[in-house]
Amino acid sequence: MPLSARDRPNAQAGAYFAALPEETADELLRMRGLIHRVAEEIEGVGPLAESLKWGEPSYTPAKAGVGSSVRLAALRDGRVAMHFICHTGLVDRFRDIYPDVFDYDGKRSILIAPDKPVDEQALSHCVAMALTYHRDRRGC
Hints:
The chain has helices at 11-18, 22-41, 90-97, 120-131, 133-138, and strands spanning 48-53, 56-61, 70-74, 80-84, 103-105, 109-112. It is α+β, with helices and mostly antiparallel strands. The protein has one domain: Aspartate Aminotransferase, domain 1 (Alpha-Beta Complex), CATH 3.90.1150. Helix 2 packs across helix 4. It starts with 10 loop residues before the first helix and ends with a helix.
């Protein structure tokens, strides 16, 4: 049975993941799967568009006006990051809700260390807030 778009990255994102060390690629692909699962679970988000933004895989609801993007990145220090658009204030909201759950980088990122467990429920909530950012701001 062929893999769905959710299960396999597009060519550009696939090339990004393939160029990484295996452990890092596996972690980012796990985060990619989490983003897709969250999108499927939230009514009205619909399928995601996968592209490269600033050379990194980015995930945005394909339907305009629903949500903000979530971008994945491998960092030089071995950690991985979920980046969010800084002017949305999303990372400040995450920090208010989950002050001791994640490491943050300014107004743009949640940082994930390979040797620390990830609270996937909290991370899923953060991803959901990003993927519904515009819809929720309008009160729809």
